[in-house]
Please model this.
Amino acid sequence: MGYPKPSNRKAELMSMKAILVHVDEHDSLESVFASAVLAGRRFGSYLQGQYVRRGLPRMVPIVPEGAFMPTGELVEDREAIDQERGERLKARFDAFMREHGVVEG
Model:
């Protein structure tokens, strides 16, 4: 998603060709998107939204003495939840950009 290059001379001297926007579920997400749109317009930047999934250990301690248990189902369930969250957040990012006139490209 991006904007045409600005005609502003000052903006030409300093440019950001791409802006990576951290996308996650929090109360300020709309403000993050709005700030990205403003910066993108200012510098004629390409905007890319990115949700980063948190890694989970494949083994977890079950007692203080150091015994560990595989987390197969737990990890798979969590990964499925994170996958759904990522898809939901991508849809939110894309919808916000369309509503604010940011073209895909």
Remarks:
- The chain has a mean pLDDT of 82.
